[in-house]
């Protein structure tokens, strides 16, 4: 399968995972969903490592630790937002990660003082946050503002995690090992949260089926997306990644009756455009292995 089609399929699987997260949220706390998602990821990445003849032993455990801290926190916040917001809204806010990375670049240039700030990056940042304003105003009630801010924060932490994945790629860590330790962090964080929230008993097969689907869909989508970025043209693949928002929009309307206004659609368009613009501008100065930063948490 060609790289563009791999990305289209990965985007569909991630959106479908969002549906399963939303359904599972009716039965389980966010920490439990993260725990079981990590558990499935551990099993699958162990199988992939064995199939490829690799090893899960790492020479940079501290890097994996800090990547897991930011990535798992972002994942928890994202799952929480999915459970409490329209699906397309939660997906879009998380996809703000490219705009956050552009903001980090601008902030770093200003702090260093010796580098010229690219006005085009500033424009993409402003467009991205204008999109956020359009999305949050019509689709989030006053009592849901907190959930919207959580979704926005998940995108910011995802950007931090992606930068750490880039560093791990430069250190020679294979994709399956990066995902394995991220999944291990999810299991640890989920287990700790369950000490506080308790363990929900599995009274029917419906709940466990949703949990299994979340883990399987996320792990398969990660591998497909990683393969797409590894074999295709980065900007083409990055643009197709935003199909996940369109898929989530359709799922939300058809399955959950989500009401999406023209202002929300305009906001989504601004965020997608800003994300693509930021990716294009970063690609002009980033080293070739920066494509590893696109690994989905």
How many individual β-strands? 0
How many individual helices?
12
The proportion of strand residues reads under 5%
Order of helices and strands: HHHHHHHHHHHH
> How would you classify the helix and strand content by structural class?
mainly alpha
Question: How far apart, in Å, are the first and last alpha carbons?
Answer: 23 Å
Looking at the structure, what is the overall shape? globular
Query: Total domains, how many?
Result: 1
Task: Name the average pLDDT.
Answer: 84
Share of helix among residues?
over 70%
Give the biggest sheet.
none
Q: Identify low-pLDDT runs.
A: 287-297
Question: What distinguishing features does this structure have?
Answer:
12 helices; 297 residues; 78% helix; mainly alpha; disordered C terminus
Please sum up the structure shown.
This protein has 297 residues and is mostly helical.
Question: What is the secondary structure topology, with strand pairs?
Answer:
Elements: H1 3-24, H2 30-51, H3 61-84, H4 87-94, H5 97-112, H6 119-139, H7 145-170, H8 175-197, H9 206-231, H10 234-241, H11 243-256, H12 262-283
Please tell me about this protein's structure.
- By secondary structure, the protein is mostly helical.
- It has one domain.
- It is 78% helix and 0% strand.
- It is built from twelve helices and no strands.
- It has helices at 3-24, 30-51, 61-84, 87-94, 97-112, 119-139, 145-170, 175-197, 206-231, 234-241, 243-256, 262-283.
- Helix 4 packs across helix 7 (145-170) and helix 4 (87-94) runs antiparallel to helix 11.
- The chain is globular and about 55 Å long.
- The model is unreliable at 287-297 (pLDDT under 50).
């Amino acid at each position: 399968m060609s790289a563009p089609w791999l990305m289209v399929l990965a985007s569909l699987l991630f959106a479908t995972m969002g549906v399963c997260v939303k359904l599972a949220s009716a039965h389980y706390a966010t920490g439990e969903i993260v725990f079981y998602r990590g558990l499935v990821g551990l099993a699958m990445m162990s199988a992939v490592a064995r199939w490829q003849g690799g090893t899960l032993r790492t020479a940079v455990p501290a890097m994996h630790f800090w990547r897991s801290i930011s990535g798992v926190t972002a994942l928890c916040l994202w799952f929480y937002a999915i459970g409490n917001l329209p699906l397309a809204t939660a997906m879009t806010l998380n996809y703000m990660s490219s705009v956050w990375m552009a903001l980090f670049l601008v902030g770093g240039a200003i702090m260093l003082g010796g580098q010229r700030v690219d006005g085009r990056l500033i424009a993409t940042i402003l467009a991205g946050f204008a999109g956020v304003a359009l999305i949050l105003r019509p689709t989030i009630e006053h009592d849901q503002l907190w959930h919207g801010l959580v979704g926005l924060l998940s995108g910011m932490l995802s950007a931090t995690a992606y930068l750490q994945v880039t560093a791990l790629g430069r250190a020679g860590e294979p994709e399956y090992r990066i995902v394995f330790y991220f999944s291990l962090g999810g299991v640890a964080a989920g287990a700790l949260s369950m000490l506080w929230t308790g363990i929900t008993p599995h009274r029917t097969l419906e709940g466990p089926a949703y949990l299994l689907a979340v883990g399987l869909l996320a792990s398969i989508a990660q591998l497909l997306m990683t393969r797409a970025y590894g074999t295709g043209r980065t900007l083409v693949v990055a643009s197709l990644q935003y199909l996940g928002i369109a898929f989530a929009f359709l799922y939300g309307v058809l399955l959950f009756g989500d009401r999406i206004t023209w202002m929300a659609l305009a906001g989504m368009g601004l965020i997608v455009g800003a994300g693509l613009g930021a990716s294009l501008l970063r690609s002009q100065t980033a080293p070739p292995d920066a494509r590893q930063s696109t690994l989905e948490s």
